[in-house]
Amino acid sequence: MDKEIATRWHTSHAKERPPRVSPRRFLYTLRARLDFSILPCTYISPPSSSCCAEIEREEKGKLKGFPVMELVPLSRSSISAPPINRLQRRNNLKWKQSKPSVSRKAGISCAGAKPPRNSGVSSQKSKRIENLYQKEGRRLLRLLEGLRSRASPEVCGEHYKSFAINGDVGLANIPKKVDEVAKVIIPGLPDDSGGSPISSCYWEWKPKISVHYEKSGSQNVDAPAVLFLPGFGVGSFHYEKQLEDLGCDYRVWALDFLGQGKSLPSEDPAPVDNREGNSEDNDVLWGFGEEPKPWARELVYSIDLWREQVQHFVEQVIGEPVYVVGNSLGGFVALYFAACNPQLVRGVTLLNATPFWGFLPNPLKSPGLSKFLPWSGTFPLPPIVRRLTQLVWEKISDPSSIQEVLKQVYADHSINVDKVFSHIIEITQHPAAAASFASIMFAPRGQLSFQEALSRCQVEGVPICLMYGREDPWVRPIWAFQVKLQLPEVPYYEISPAGHCPHDEVPEVINFLLRGWIKNLESQGSVPLPLLEEPDYVQYEISKELEYVKEGSRKSIKVRFLGLNSFWNLIISSLKLRLASLLKSFR
């Protein structure tokens, strides 16, 4: 009888009771209805395949679900991040099969469903708690659905602003198609007849020390000056595509560092005494003698020498502050030069800049340790260094070795690198190349580290822009992320596919971004940064596909812009890279 009464009461009150919602079903429903993935106080992980199967079984009545759900609040780390009340939306909102791991150290916690911790709670109290969670979950869903329906339908971009006031979420400008990556058509490179002509010049910096450089766009007398600095082992020829294209709008220079490119000495800095019966190998290698020439006594091909070289070149040849663009080693030198001479710099662009250079300590920073080092890159080379250099140089100057290096640093192997290859071979055949290589390898580190130079540029207010190829096997994206975390206000463009030399691999993209960045600075911010339709978009993360015509066919490159509020994306990307590296090591 009691059972019948209970059954009748349950039937009559069935409509009054709210439907049972399991925690996993609540999470799945919430994620399925929203166009963003990170709530202001909660990180909700995507449903795994097992979760989806559980929901399906639940619908068939085979599973009741947990009685209580707890949302774990998002913890904060010491890394500067957007306010906890601001919604962050990812670019790619498609479901992922893998569930992100919980990392308290990185400041990331995942929301999940947990059973009650106190198993002694009474059944009546447990039901009250369960109903409370169910009502709150339905209220949140209705609130978010209403806010989403009130969003502006005309907005089709990838950005929005959001706020949280007294726990209520407010949204505006939510895009209609969040999965769509906008395409941008950019110009290709000029043809042979349309590009700016390039002039090859020499500048005698010091007696017996001449610097080779190339210039373009001299007719643009009122245009800004742009100086390109090359990476290790190459020279000004590596910026041919920038000189021809950007020379149409700006005055452009590309410099060869001393000891590299065509800035090698024109005479032997330490000639071999042939009367001593030296081998024929020493006859064709300069700098392998016992006594240096007077002009070469203090010559060391160090980063301090290159910084001083750039400073005097800007002062004596260009004659005005410049925009400096550096790739790899050239990026480090550009930053170092800007940190020491901010009055000569209008802005610095880093193209996969190497974050360190030199193995031996700097004599000014570590005088005690430097005294114990037998040699610091000066001429003449010690006998043991000569023998070691001959063995190493024979290997690295071999054409097959050079081809292998080019395959590593260029992500797209269809790129024609014949010109670059022939220029490098020409450099390695210079009689002073081997001794110059030895001096570079044993030269001390600079007076400022990469991080110290960044900090000084930040204090001096030097504008910096980052343009990095994502597929670089040497300067991996993690190094660019560290720069962005140290200087969160600088624009960062991640280019893919592109390797260590994006200026030569995807010059159309680099030239387009450089033009836009210079226009932004010259207009004092009234012209938005490239790929940003509005100045306020600098806060967010944006992905665009840049299309251009190359050799008669269309090519598409993805560019990701990381703004001020992209710190969580940086952290997640760093964790993904570390995890991928760890998994690769176990294979």
From TrEMBL:
Domain of life: Eukaryota
Location of the AB hydrolase-1 domain: 226-509
Name of the protein: AB hydrolase-1 domain-containing protein
Chain intervals with Basic and acidic residues compositional bias: 1-19
Gene Ontology MF terms: pheophytinase activity
A GO cellular-component term linked to this record: chloroplast
Chain segments carrying region Disordered: 1-21, 96-128
Organism (species): Ensete ventricosum
GO biological process: chlorophyll catabolic process
InterPro entries: AB_hydrolase_1, AB_hydrolase_fold, PPH_chloroplastic
